[in-house]
Amino acid sequence: MASANKNGGIVTGYGSILRDCVSSSSTFLGSGFRVSSNCTITGCVADGNAGNGFEFVSSCVISGNNSTNNTGDGFHLIQPGGLNRIDGNVAVGNGQAGIRWSNDLVIRNNCYGNGVASGNYNPAMGGAFGPVQAASTATNPFANF
């Protein structure tokens, strides 16, 4: 658990595995989690950090995490490169986008009430993706893939 750190919560290097960790209330634009390439993050919580909840580079698996009430994005790809799998996460009440990505596999995530200007899902230009629709009103068979 990392709490109330000045420059961010948990920072890791190449190939790290984070499981069931918590980072909260990091100040001075500190993100909750910042990981390098080829990392796995599962079952972690980023709450109330002054930056993004989760930041990652490339070839990572980001699954089953919760990002709430962070000033920046809930989940943020810092450097486009290898394909990331962003799956089964929750992003609620973040100041910017719920999930900001490029060239990644983004499926089965729940985003609600994130920054109005950035929206809940914010893909890079040119990406191919199915329409994002609420489950109760989805009319497209490829919605939310």
Question: What does this 3D model show about the protein?
Answer:
This protein is mostly beta strands and 145 residues long. It is built from no helices and 17 strands. The strands form three sheets. Strands 1-4-7-10-13-16 form a six-stranded parallel beta sheet, with no helix packed on it. The protein is globular and about 45 Å long.
List the helices and strands and how they pair.
Layout lengths: L1 E2 L6 E2 L5 E3 L2 E3 L8 E2 L5 E3 L2 E3 L6 E3 L4 E3 L2 E3 L6 E3 L7 E3 L2 E3 L6 E3 L3 E3 L2 E3 L8 E3 L22
Parallel strand pairs: 1-4, 2-5, 3-6, 4-7, 5-8, 6-9, 7-10, 8-11, 9-12, 10-13, 11-14, 12-15, 13-16, 14-17
Proportion of helical residues: under 10%
Q: Give the low-pLDDT segments.
A: none
Q: How many angstroms separate the termini?
A: 33 Å
Number of strands: 17
Cα gyration radius (Å): 14 Å
With strands numbered from the N-terminus, the spatial order across the biggest sheet is 1-4-7-10-13-16
Which structural class fits the helix and strand makeup?
mainly beta
Order of helices and strands: EEEEEEEEEEEEEEEEE
Figure out the total of helices: 0
The main β sheet shows up as: 6 strands, parallel
The amount of beta strand, in percent, is 25-35%
